Amino acid sequence: MITVTGSINLDIVATGPTLPRPGETVTNARLARHPGGKGANQALAAQRLGADVRLIGAVGADDMAEEALKLLQAGGVDLSGVQHINGETTGVALIAVSADGENLIVVCPGANRALRPADVEDADITHMMGVLEIPADTLLAAANRATGFVSLNLAPAMSVPDALLARASLLCVNETEAAFYGDALHAAGALVAISLGGEGAALYRNGTEIAREAAPQVQVVDTVGAGDTFTAALTVALIEGMSEEAALRFAVTAGALACTRAGAQPSLPKRAEVDSLFGTR
């Protein structure tokens, strides 16, 4: 089983012709609401890709919590580790998406920031995935409980304890996050995956590139959730024992498929879809 320790949000998405510049108002957008949060997205992505997944996280005791958890529950993710915290709001992400699929995101963490190390101290964790939309000390506590593979998505970019990096088997970042962390990414000895948007992704060990994979050509509708799909797919593939090159190709394929539908969790591909496209590459 993979235990995901991470964020749970409700995504409020405005899709319009262009993204606004500072001080600019863009109109004629369409509004949608989708369950999201990087932790929840990666949990559901891994479940749809064939893993058994448990999510440890927190939502508010409010009307948005049920909506934020709806697809996770329907998808079979174990939610026994999710707390409903009085006095906190469920996390919300405000997302603007342009006609060409690019996005801007503002996150209101709410209950995600109330998840504490004590909330994971008794957790039985084998393999683990974690994201930085919850406190880093809680993520470290969960990583220290893990006895197997530890996958960390260092997003959004922020200073993290060296001890957390040292626990990782795999670190996943995008280009912007890779620039923020610099050499510290490679110093801990973990595999490092850097996603490159439409250009695919690269995999490094000890600062040396060991694999690179171009993205398949797809019709991009929305890039929200693609990075979470990539991280989950790479983690699942490596835990399953795929070679590093094949795992990277599998992850890039899954991430590309997530771009072909709108929304974060609604866009997450199922294993059969990924296997089908993966087998043609």
From TrEMBL:
Its EC number is 2.7.1.15. It is found in: Cytoplasm. It is an enzyme of class 2 (transferase). Pathway: Carbohydrate metabolism; D-ribose degradation; D-ribose 5-phosphate from beta-D-ribopyranose: step 2/2. Residues 2-270 form the Carbohydrate kinase PfkB domain. InterPro entries: Carboh/pur_kinase_PfkB_CS, PfkB_dom, Ribo/fructo_kinase, Ribokinase, Ribokinase-like. Requires a divalent cation, most likely magnesium in vivo, as an electrophilic catalyst to aid phosphoryl group transfer. It is the chelate of the metal and the nucleotide that is the actual substrate. Keywords: ATP-binding, Carbohydrate metabolism, Cytoplasm, Kinase, Magnesium, Metal-binding, Nucleotide-binding, Potassium, Transferase. GO terms for molecular function: ATP binding; metal ion binding; ribokinase activity. Gene3D superfamilies: 3.40.1190.20. The keyword Calcium does not apply. K(+) binds at residues 222, 224, 258, 261, 263, 267. It catalyses: D-ribose + ATP = D-ribose 5-phosphate + ADP + H(+). Pfam families: PfkB (PF00294). Substrate binds at residues 9-11, 37-41, 133, 228. It comes from the Bacteria. ATP binds at residues 174, 195-200, 227-228. One of its GO terms (biological process) is D-ribose catabolic process. Its cofactor is Mg(2+). Catalyzes the phosphorylation of ribose at O-5 in a reaction requiring ATP and magnesium. The resulting D-ribose-5-phosphate can then be used either for sythesis of nucleotides, histidine, and tryptophan, or as a component of the pentose phosphate pathway. Belongs to the carbohydrate kinase PfkB family. Ribokinase subfamily. Belongs to the carbohydrate kinase pfkB family. Homodimer. This is Ribokinase. It comes from Hyphomonas chukchiensis. The gene is rbsK.
